Amino acid sequence: MSNKLLTRKGETIPSIFNDFFKPWDQLWDTNSGGRFLPGNMHLLTVPAVNITDNKNHYEIALAAPGMKKDDFTIDIEGNMLTISSEMEENREERDERFTRREFSYSTFSRSFSLPEGVIKDKIDATYVNGVLRLVLPKTEDAKKQASMHINVK
């Protein structure tokens, strides 16, 4: 005789409590825009970044849809490249019976250590289709550096 626990995929037995507690759960659920989180914590995100090492340059691609090129600030201090943004939006809807105002504010900052061999004054940045793309050209010495393969023991 087997002592296996009988299980079933999905929810266990439906219960009236599922629907009863659903509104309460949604207040705290970050995936559904919980209203009791500090500030707008459910809206906080940091843009995803892809970094590639090509023969002649490095490339940083930062996903930031819904922004404008003027929303970005790109600074270099020493060997630290920082991409940041602050967006503030005020919207107002007027109807004959009501006025609704919404304020939106978002900010982010991403910093990257630049490798040796980047020509800092030749870095180029473009923003197209929601992607901020930085091309960081390499010096001739950096282009010549041979790649290396390391075996795992």
Textual characterization of the structure:
This protein is mostly beta strands. The protein folds into 2 domains: 16-44, no CATH class; 46-144, Immunoglobulin-like, CATH 2.60.40. The protein has 2 helices and 7 strands, in the order H-E-E-E-E-E-E-E-H. It has helices at 16-28, 140-144, and strands at 49-53, 57-63, 72-77, 80-94, 99-113, 124-128, 131-137. It has a 4-stranded antiparallel sheet with strand order 1-2-7-6, with no helix packed on it. A 3-stranded antiparallel sheet has the order 3-4-5, with no helix packed on it. The longest helix has 13 residues, at 16-28. Mean pLDDT is 78; it is low at 4-9, 32-37 and 39-43.
Strand order of the largest sheet: 1-2-7-6
Q: What string gives the helices and strands in order?
A: HEEEEEEEH
Question: How many individual domains?
Answer: 2
Can you give the helix content as a percent range?
10-25%
Tell me the structural class.
mainly beta
Number of H/I helices = 2
| Multimer state | single chain
| Second rung of CATH, namely the architecture of the largest domain | Sandwich
Radius of gyration: 25 Å
Q: Tell me the distance between the termini.
A: 46 Å
Low-pLDDT residue spans: 4-9, 32-37, 39-43
Globular, elongated, flat, extended or rod-shaped: what is the shape?
A: elongated
